[in-house]
Amino acid sequence: MSTPETPSAPSCSQLFWVFTRIALTSFGGGLSGWLLREFVQNRKWMTQEEFLNGLSISQALPGVNVKNMAVWIGYRLLGWRGAIIGFVGIIVPPAIVIVLLEAVFSSLSGYPLTHVALTGAAAAAVGLSLSMGITAARAVPRNAIPMIIMAGTFVAVAILHWPLFWVVLVAGFVSVAYAYVKGRVDE
């Protein structure tokens, strides 16, 4: 089975502009869906498996997931320079726009159309997040243990309302232990 050819790594400026464009054209959640589409599906700079591994790491680390993901993708593609470019590209341009928009929004907040537009943008963000969740769920191995861990995490958080911190800590430990043991057995 041959592996598909992957295009050469992006230049620093290409990477910066991709992150900047994603950051400036996204609103609310769903950025991981845009990152997947851009880096895996459109540009093929990484595989879906690499992306989902990075997403898992990014979500496990403290801080903003999309910032963690941008740093990880940047590092994966261009080393320490890419990590810095990913961070700056995903954070700085939107921060500037947010300050400018705040001035405009404060003067428009009294109009009902403003709230309608924000509701529509939020719905689009939910759709992108759902798309990313479905993509990730499809990539989960169809083994009993990962499915039990996934279902158990859902039940614990969504139905039983257990504290997210403890559920993630326990489920994360069990997942890592399972992957470690499975990896050792497969060797």
TrEMBL record:
Its main location: membrane. It is a multi-pass membrane protein. InterPro entries: CHR_Transporter, Chromate_transpt. Keywords: Cell membrane, Membrane, Transmembrane, Transmembrane helix. The chain crosses the membrane at residues 15-36, 78-101, 113-136, 148-181. It is found in: Cell membrane. Belongs to the chromate ion transporter (CHR) (TC 2.A.51) family. PANTHER family: CHROMATE TRANSPORT PROTEIN-RELATED, CHROMATE TRANSPORTER. This is Chromate transporter.
